[in-house]
Protein: ATPase dynein-related AAA domain-containing protein
Amino acid sequence: MGEMTLKLKRALTQKLAKKIHNFLFLGKIVTERVVDQEKQSLLFYEDEDHIRFYVECLSPIPSKLKASFSTQDVLFVGTTANKNNESKIKPLIKSKKKDDIIDGLKKIFDSKLVMFRLEYANEVVTADLVEFFDGKRDTSYHLLPVIELRGEGKREEVENRLIKGSLPIHLPKYFNDFDQPEFVFYENRLYGNLFLKSMMNDISYLEKQNEVTFQDYDEDELKKSFIHLNHLIYFIPEKQWEELCKNFKKECKELIYTQDFTEKQAFPVEWSNDTENAFIERFYQNCLQQGLLYEKKDIINFHICCKFQALTILGGVSGTGKSQLARIYGETLGLEFGKELLFVPISPSYREHYDLLGYLNPTTGIYIDSETGLTKLLIEAEQFPHRMYMVIFDEMNLSQIEHWFSKFLSILEMPQDKRVITLFHDHNVVINQYYKPKVRIGNNIIFVGTVNFDETSSEFSLRLLDRVNIISLRSTSFINYAEKMNNENIYETVPQIYINAENYSNWTKKTLSASELTSDELKFFDEFNKIVEHSLSERIISPRMIKDLSNYLANIPTLPSHIQFERKEAIDLFVKQRVLTKVRGLFANLEELIGTGEGNEQEGLLNMVMKSNLGRSISDFEYSIKELKKKRKQLEIDGYVN
Structure:
């Protein structure tokens, strides 16, 4: 019988050989078999002292390992020459006589299951016994691995990892050489519909699909019914496994994101009541750390616009870090680039909203998604309303924005319950049903665009200018930046914070049309409109803009006194980025409004209204007056302003 050791047709790879001893299997010791109608004993003394036995495996064997076996009907050989096997079998030996010993062991082995590992040496694989169990010997077994959370943990943490896929789960008794597990278990819950991607260390996995489902399942029931090792892996017989799968399919629910981020990382006391201020501080520091030289007021201005505006546009010449600023904002919220934080470079070829969202091919019934990934993000954001998402449209004006974005913009302006985008009509048949006819766009998505002001870009329509804030970024001086960077511990003063949709919406206030504006402020904007109407035959400040200004003022965060964002400054910034963007046209129309000549031969009516007593009472309009000066220069050089 000596020839029955399990020879391999090819040696195991070094990597597999190294870890094979960690794999766990469940099987039965086979004590005899029939070959050519002759009974053959498979339990015997191989020499004076040592007993040989053979194990048939009833649980999964990794395919890489299986591929090395020379035969598919595998019996693993074991011997009591292995000290571990001897220690497991010795207590079962009741007799002194060799024949009686074999008979006694045969009786026990024929009624038991055995958990075992494999040893690999000299290109031979042998069985190493772990423990004997009572159980069914005429069935195969499936594996149910259990998640172990390292350090302090709760089910909530595990579930957020399964949904978000940014941190791994650990399955200490389930190596990635085995097939993708059908289910995993943690604290009275089964989780299914998994798409786990293995990490570097063989037992850590990232969930990549975000469509996990779960079912409550009593842990005591598992322990009582199935064979396991230290509650970290369960072996479940075929019939019960089928029942479990059937039951799960019927009763499972979708796993929804519920994390309260403040629990994930407790705030230091001084920040606990002021998450928004902590966020702004952290955002500013992240900008500095990544080499962006912006004034803190500009960073606050951008944050205010993101809170209430359907779309915020960052403008400026190329190289000022607009895209970087938007990305850092998302990352400071705790979003992961390429997942909840989507970067969409706009192509000059974009003409329709289909370019952005994809379309349904009515002939095949297949939804052809756009390369942007935007549709997937919108569907996911609707599924997980507790999570924040952000979309950055980079270099928006490389193509005419109204062509590909107009449908989107109209929808974003609607009341929350009507913000629904139609991908295709309800009556269409769609094969890939992940895509649905309508997607609701919640308040948990921030839309930001970047634009370059140069000869490659398209001009904005008045319709767009009426709806968006265009923020021109100003860099702080290099010397100022150097001083800040030398300020020690700049990155240690504020905690890294994670913001969910509830936190973010708590920072956001929605007002009625002009509820935040004083009568003097309203009077000033009436006056402003009258002057413009006289020159351009139209009012440029619409009721929509007044409502947005009201929202802008309502959303100014309460900041520490040394960086207070004054109301007067806010009104000035709003006029610059929202009202003056619409002051454009030819010399003949604008000369009277913005003046001519360096020596101010004619000052310009807009300057005059800002410097009037009424104007001065609501703001000093420092930024707006500078902007008008810039426009005046452009008017003199080019004969028009865009």
Notes: Residues 519-536 form the longest helix (18 residues). The longest strand covers residues 124-133.
